[in-house]
Write a structure and sequence with these properties.
The protein is built from 9 helices and no strands. Helix 8 runs antiparallel to helix 9.
């Protein structure tokens, strides 16, 4: 008897959740059909119905990561420097969910560096992130909360700061717990606001 479409969709969701759990605990380096099958309590044969090759599994994992990143709740943007702060706080691993997402993003960099098309896609994502941050920083400059200067340059520096803090917090969470991350971000923004033109 063939499965109903709802059964197929429910099973696909279960598989996606198992992929996410493997990514969160092992990163992209540990993403294998066997690991997902074990997490799911199924056989690798069942998984090959959804992912005939590891490249299909990786493509699905990247789509899943992108969907979850896009769908996650964000802080209320606000205006000026408060909006800049909120945008950067949304990047940091301050909650278990944000930590999992960041761990998966960072572990996916190796995959992206090895694949020219994926590398270009990631470069585009980070460029769009810098552009959004640039506009937010320009708004803070217009309000006089940040000194004049090239907002694109400020955005590149701010995003680099946040991503560097992400890496440190993932590698040494005891030294960079959420409250310390927030303190360091606030110190960074205070120094940015105090700069002279």
């Amino acid at each position: 008897m063939p499965r109903a479409k709802g059964d197929h969709e429910a099973r696909r969701l279960e598989v996606s959740e198992a992929v996410w759990r493997v990514l969160a605990s092992r990163g992209f380096g540990g993403l294998t059909l066997r690991a997902v099958a074990t997490e799911l309590g199924a056989t690798t044969g069942l998984l090959t119905h959804y992912f005939p090759a590891k490249s299909d599994l990786v493509a699905h994992a990247l789509d899943l990561l992108d969907q979850r990143t896009t769908a996650r709740s964000r802080r209320t943007a606000g205006t000026g420097l408060a909006a800049v702060r909120n945008a950067l706080l949304d990047i940091l691993p301050l909650t278990p969910e944000a930590t999992d997402s960041n761990r998966i993003w960072v572990s996916s960099w190796d995959t992206a560096l090895a694949d020219p098309a994926l590398r270009a896609d990631y470069a585009g994502k980070y460029a769009r992130g810098r552009d959004r941050l640039r506009d937010t920083l320009a708004g803070a400059q217009e309000l006089g909360e940040l000194p004049p200067g090239d907002p694109a340059r400020l955005a590149a520096g701010a995003l680099s700061f946040a991503l560097g803090l992400v890496v440190q917090a993932l590698l040494d969470p005891d030294a960079f717990p959420p409250d310390r991350q927030v303190e360091l971000l606030d110190d960074y923004l205070a120094a940015l606001a105090a700069r002279t033109a």
